[in-house]
Amino acid sequence: MRPNNIPARAYDLRVFGVSNELLLRTMSLDSYDIALLAAIQQDATTPQHALGAQISLSSAAVNRRLKKLADEGVTRKTVSLVDPERVGYALTIITEVEVENERLDLLDAMKRSFLACPQVQQCYYVAGECDFVVIMVVQNMAQYTALTRTLFFESNNVKRFKTLVSMSNVKVGLEVPLDAVAD
């Protein structure tokens, strides 16, 4: 039976290990917060007075809400997206990595090696046929070959890896869909 303080749509997520505390915190965003998040996901450089005009809030209210969203970890970082090709990174590589042993210390060592590599843009520890999916940008195949030596061949814990080379980056983004989040 679903506890009364957890919305029905959120209760089903507990099956996947999502905690009640996280669900309650997630569900506390109101329509103004959602509108702000949608706007800053498109352009985080929009001035606060312009954001306020878009969603009918004062600049001070926008400032307070943005600070609260950051303080609570809803927003994590403000960055500029650099076009990799314009700075010499012509290839996007997606690599599926299967590990030999899933001991925590060995997995942590692999995670550290991916975190330390500047060409790695994203890295996911996943369930399924492989253990990691690594997305990286490289200048050319010679650079990727050198990275495979460092990241995969020199690791004692990589069983195999499979490389996919992007022919066209159809969609690249990190925007989170917000249509089902508001109370």
UniProtKB/TrEMBL annotation:
GO cellular component labels? cytosol
Q: Which GO terms describe its biological process?
A: response to amino acid
Could you tell me which residue ranges the HTH asnC-type domain spans?
Answer: 29-90
Domain of life of the native organism: Bacteria
Q: Which UniProt keywords are present, listed alphabetically? A: DNA-binding, Transcription, Transcription regulation
Q: Which SMART domains match?
A: HTH_ASNC (SM00344)
- Cross-referenced Pfam families: AsnC_trans_reg, HTH_24
Per its record, what are the GO molecular function terms? Answer: sequence-specific DNA binding
What protein name is recorded for this chain? Answer: AsnC family transcriptional regulator
Q: Organism, per UniProt?
A: Pandoraea anhela
